[in-house]
Design the sequence.
């Protein structure tokens, strides 16, 4: 795997416009800075890769191959959601570097969706660096004065073969009327925090401002080079004004979460599968809660695909939950009953090869059905299928949506509790659990509009959901234990241990059912 680092930096340009010469700032007397070291200039040559539609750049992601300097190699920069900070994944240059490394392509597979990567921009930079040092000579921050020349590959040039590595490159570049022979050029300043405190960035910014510089209008060198070819991403939404904006705002949050979690799932990072499954369920739940605002002709097929994805992710998650529950049962069971054969069967119950199940999940996440789902979700957000009621005031619509989902849950819990213990009640409580999730997620969607009222409602629904989740986990575990007991009996093995464990799980479920009325009375309040 590539080296992962957090990069915190700010970019500046001359205050009177791009391309103007930069006045060096006064760096004496900066807080925490004991010394200054100016380094020899370095020449950097970077080729940036993207899809024909600039899918990476549209998501504030960049992939480049850079030579020159101390960190030559392949660099993938990913947004973190924090201002000025990104995650950079670095892979050294190899013998064959005509295409981006597969491990970096995997990181952005959910953005590429099978589309090819091609060079889109080449940047040649002369960098003049100044290090700000602590008392021991360690680098607190680096200030880089960059003289940049950009060569933008003509749209389609890489598709038709107009550029080949090592060939005459000038024919593959666009040169603006004011760009000169080599293409657009500019100067800028980058300040990268290394070991220094965050306040040092602000202190350096004050000096740069005093020298006539300002924060760069472009978020990156690549964005500046691409200019009008790169559409600016939509600004972060403010407080929703309409019912439709409540729905799409929440859906956009879930799509963002899915895209961010996709590479974590592929890397098999702990809890990533669970979190991605939750984001998928939240998106599907929103489509149900806001059926009065969104055309079901468009949302129902998408909801079916989200249900499919949640089920795919759930296979691995359910295995994890069952494994933890079995471990708990074994720890509490009578040692005299838990023979080696029983222990082996129970551990085998949830011990399907993790490597095998993860590989199967990754295959799904590399398939056309998953990519098509992401495309459809993005398309819905670009052109939402609003109904007339989507124009209703957000406050009223959010209150009504939360109220509808809460009423649905109330009816289901009352009906379930009216049933005698047994399979029918188990099924009814499972349906109530799904409605509790829907009520919780609707409360989350309403929080930008309803504030603390919605947050409190969400917390109450979460408590109900978690209790019902414990009940459902017990039901599923009992079913798995029953299958295992039948297998053991067929093999001529004693089954007393399984009978005792099933009884213990049944007691857990009964305790939940006994607790539920009080928990529901506490949660059953109008928003």
Sequence:
């Amino acid at each position: 795997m590539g080296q992962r680092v957090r990069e915190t930096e700010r970019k500046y340009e001359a205050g009177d416009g791009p391309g103007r010469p930069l006045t060096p700032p006064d760096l004496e007397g900066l807080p925490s800075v004991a010394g200054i070291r100016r380094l020899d200039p370095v020449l950097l040559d970077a080729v940036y890769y993207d899809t024909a539609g600039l899918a990476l750049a549209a998501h504030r992601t960049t992939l480049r191959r850079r030579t020159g300097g101390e960190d030559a190699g392949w660099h993938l920069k990913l947004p973190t959601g924090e201002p000025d900070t990104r995650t950079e994944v670095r892979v050294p240059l190899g013998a064959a570097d005509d295409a981006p490394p597969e491990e970096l392509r995997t990181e952005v597979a959910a953005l590429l969706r099978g589309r090819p990567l091609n060079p889109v921009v080449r940047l040649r930079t002369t960098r003049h660096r100044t290090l700000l040092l602590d008392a021991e000579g360690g680098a607190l921050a680096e200030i880089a004065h960059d003289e940049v020349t950009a060569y933008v590959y003509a749209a389609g040039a890489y598709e038709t073969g107009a550029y080949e590595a090592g060939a005459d490159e000038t024919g593959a570049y666009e040169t603006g009327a004011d760009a000169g022979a080599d293409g657009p050029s500019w100067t800028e300043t980058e300040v990268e925090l290394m070991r220094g405190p965050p306040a040092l960035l602000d202190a350096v910014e004050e000096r740069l401002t005093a020298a006539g510089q300002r924060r760069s209008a472009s978020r990156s060198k690549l964005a500046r080079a691409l200019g009008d070819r790169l559409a600016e991403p939509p600004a972060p939404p403010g407080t929703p004004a309409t019912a439709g904006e409540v729905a799409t705002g929440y859906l956009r949050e879930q799509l963002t979460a899915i895209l961010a979690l996709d590479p974590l799932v592929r890397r098999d990072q702990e809890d990533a599968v669970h979190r991605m499954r939750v984001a998928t369920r939240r998106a599907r739940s929103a489509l149900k809660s806001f059926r009065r605002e969104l055309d079901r002709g468009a949302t129902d097929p998408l909801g079916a695909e989200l249900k499919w994805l949640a089920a795919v992710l759930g296979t691995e998650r359910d295995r994890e939950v069952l494994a933890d529950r079995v471990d708990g049962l074994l720890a509490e069971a009578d040692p005299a009953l838990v023979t080696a054969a029983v222990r082996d069967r129970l551990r085998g119950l949830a011990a399907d090869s993790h490597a095998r199940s993860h590989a199967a999940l990754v295959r799904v996440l590399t398939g056309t059905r998953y990519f098509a789902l992401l495309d459809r979700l993005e398309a819905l957000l670009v052109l939402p299928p609003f109904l007339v009621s989507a124009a209703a005031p957000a406050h009223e619509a959010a209150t009504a949506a939360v109220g509808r989902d809460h009423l649905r849950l109330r009816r289901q819990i009352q009906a379930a509790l009216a049933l005698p213990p047994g399979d029918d009640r188990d099924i009814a409580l499972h349906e109530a659990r799904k409605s509790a999730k829907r009520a919780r997620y609707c409360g989350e969607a309403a929080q930008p509009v309803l504030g603390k009222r919605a947050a409190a409602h969400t917390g109450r629904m979460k408590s109900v959901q978690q209790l019902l989740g414990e009940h459902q986990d017990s039901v599923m575990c009992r079913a798995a234990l029953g299958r295992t007991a039948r297998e053991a009996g067929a093999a001529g093995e004693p089954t007393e241990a399984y009978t005792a464990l099933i009884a213990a799980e049944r007691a857990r479920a009964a305790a939940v059912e006994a607790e539920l009325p009080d928990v529901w009375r506490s949660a059953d309040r109008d928003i």
